């Protein structure tokens, strides 16, 4: 409903004024009084004053009413002005939102187009790479055969020292051929699985034949040998020679980059180059993050462990990479997906290195072996440590250290004299005038106690957490000074990721129940048959 301003005309005072004017004119003119039959007393002075007072009252009443209406009008004008102002502000906000959302939409379109172009470009590169690999494999068969025959002949006719180099070159050529095979297949997992069934048949025949019909080609290989080949370019060959000397003893190796523990394991079916490719990708991924400045830790190295639980061979590799959220567990194994930035890859591996292939190959090879991959985030945690120090003269001292996590989830020591304001330190340092004879340290989280024999005089020694040798959570340093000894306790940043690949051994595949379908798979098949029967009338 449209509202209008009601100011009004001062009719009351105007009419009253005309009446008073007519009354006063009549009172002043005798001729006018004679025209009206009114009592003469009405024209006396008191009544004239009364008429003037009535006129003044009428004027006052109209003035008051005009003032009230003017105030109402001014208030209404101000209200309309406020509404106009709010409308203008709302219009400006809407225009700002429109521009903002338009910018966001443009950025989203640009982001989506960039991602699409990136994936299209990656798919084109991958297809181009696969076509090149297929062409190389197709046209390189004759060259490959010539090189292999020459290397075999050279290894046979050379002395033992040179023959080893020829055999390594021959293994490298075979590995290259396997890479070309995997790069040209449409489904790596299915390709490896089909190969394994062929090797499995050869394995059965070999076991049935026994030693009577020895085959020159072995359908199995020791998993430990493949892992040794994977680390061959990173550690001293003399240490590898020690590992080759005794195949049944556990092999331990440790340096500034690696901590390797390879137990004597069962054999696996297939080509050892599959496991070699799997291990190399995991190791290269671990070294990439281990070399980054943020993740560097002299005590948390790339930890490689190979064990056998009787049915499966388990390979675990720990690295200092960033934590992988639960929703990203499956995505990291997708073709073309990588958490590494392009410039990081170029800086560490070269400009022409592809990305998003390493973990994809790991996953496909594991699926081909009918194995499984577990991804475990290794996190820092808070703890309380009790350190008991015993001196040569028999006196004992106990120190309690609380470790806390800072805003970056890094372990820090809580200062004992500043517990209220939460002050933390990177390490706790103690100085003793007496000579330390032994140290005991207890972790409240694990409820384990470790005894440490103090080093001799003049020796500096660092002790690491023995409960977590792959990624120690603390270190203890004892340093002799001129007149006293210094004891330093430091919590270590061990945040990282551990990949564990579990693959069935060749012996486990001999189990007659190995290839049987699980009960839930049979149930799913029956349900599928029911669905097919339900829709079959509509398909006729």
How would you describe this protein?
This protein has 540 residues and is an alpha+beta fold. It has three domains: 11-134, no CATH class; 185-379, 2-Layer Sandwich (Heat Shock Protein 90); 385-494, no CATH class. Helix content is 48%, strand content 20%. The protein is built from twelve helices and 18 strands. It has helices at 11-28, 30-35, 45-139, 141-157, 160-184, 188-209, 223-230, 237-245, 272-290, 342-349, 358-368, 519-539, and strands spanning 220-222, 251-254, 258-262, 267-269, 302-308, 312-319, 372-378, 383-391, 396-405, 411-414, 424-425, 428-432, 436-443, 448-453, 461-464, 474-480, 485-491, 496-504. Strands 2-3-5-6-18-7 form a six-stranded mixed beta sheet, covered by helices on one side. A six-stranded antiparallel beta sheet has the order 11-10-9-8-13-14, with no helix packed on it. Strands 12-17-16-15 form a four-stranded antiparallel beta sheet, with no helix packed on it. A hairpin with a 4-residue loop joins strand 8 and strand 9 (396-405). The radius of gyration is 46 Å and the shape is elongated. The two termini are 68 Å apart.
């Amino acid at each position: 409903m449209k509202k209008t301003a009601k100011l009004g005309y001062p009719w009351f005072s105007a009419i009253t004024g005309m009446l008073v004017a007519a009354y006063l004119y009549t009172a002043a003119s005798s001729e006018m009084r004679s025209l009206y039959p009114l009592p003469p007393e009405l024209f006396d002075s008191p009544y004239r004053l009364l008429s003037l007072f009535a006129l003044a009252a009428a004027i006052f009443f109209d003035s008051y009413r005009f003032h009230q209406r003017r105030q109402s009008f001014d208030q209404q004008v101000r209200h309309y002005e406020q509404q106009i102002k709010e409308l203008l502000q709302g219009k400006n906000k809407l225009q700002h939102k429109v521009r903002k959302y338009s910018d966001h939409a443009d950025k989203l379109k640009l982001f989506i187009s960039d991602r699409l172009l990136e994936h299209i470009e990656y798919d084109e590169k991958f297809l181009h790479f696969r076509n090149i690999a297929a062409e190389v494999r197709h046209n390189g068969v004759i060259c490959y055969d010539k090189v292999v025959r020459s290397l075999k002949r050279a290894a046979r006719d050379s002395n033992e020292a040179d023959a080893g180099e020829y055999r390594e070159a021959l293994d490298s050529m075979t590995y290259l051929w396997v890479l070309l095979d995997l790069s040209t297949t449409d489904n790596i997992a299915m390709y490896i699985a089909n190969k394994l069934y062929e090797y499995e048949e050869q394995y059965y025949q070999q076991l049935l034949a026994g030693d009577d019909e020895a085959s020159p080609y072995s359908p199995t290989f020791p998993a430990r040998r493949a892992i040794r080949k994977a680390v061959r370019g990173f550690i001293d060959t003399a240490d590898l020679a020690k590992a080759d000397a005794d195949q049944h003893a556990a092999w331990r190796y440790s340096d500034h980059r690696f901590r390797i523990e390879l137990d004597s394991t069962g054999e696996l079916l297939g080509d050892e180059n599959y496991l070699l490719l799997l291990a190399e990708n995991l190791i290269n991924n671990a070294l990439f993050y281990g070399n980054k400045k943020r993740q560097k830790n002299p005590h948390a190295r790339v930890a490689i462990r190979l064990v056998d639980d009787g049915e499966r061979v388990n390979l675990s590799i720990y690295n200092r990479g960033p934590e992988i959220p639960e929703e990203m567990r499956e995505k990291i194994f997708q073709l073309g997906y990588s958490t590494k930035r392009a410039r990081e890859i170029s800086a560490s591996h070269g400009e022409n290195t592809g990305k998003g292939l390493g973990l994809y190959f790991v996953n496909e090879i594991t699926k081909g072996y009918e194995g499984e991959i577990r991804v475990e985030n290794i996190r820092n945690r808070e703890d309380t440590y009790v350190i008991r120090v015993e001196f040569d003269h028999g006196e004992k001292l106990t120190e309690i250290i609380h470790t806390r996590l800072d805003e970056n989830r890094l372990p820090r020591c809580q200062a004992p004299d500043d517990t209220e304001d939460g002050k933390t330190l990177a390490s706790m340092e103690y100085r003793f005038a007496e000579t330390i004879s032994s140290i005991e340290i207890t972790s409240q989280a694990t409820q384990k106690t470790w005894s440490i024999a103090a080093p001799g005089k003049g020796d500096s020694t660092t002790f690491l957490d023995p409960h977590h040798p792959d990624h120690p959570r603390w270190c203890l340093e004892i340093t002799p000074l001129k007149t006293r000894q210094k004891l330093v306790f430091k919590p270590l940043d061990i945040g990282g990721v551990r990949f564990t690949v579990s693959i069935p051994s060749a012996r486990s595949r001999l189990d007659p129940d190995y290839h049987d379908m699980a009960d839930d798979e049979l149930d799913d098949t029956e349900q599928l048959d029911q669905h097919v029967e339900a829709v079959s009338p509509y398909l006729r």
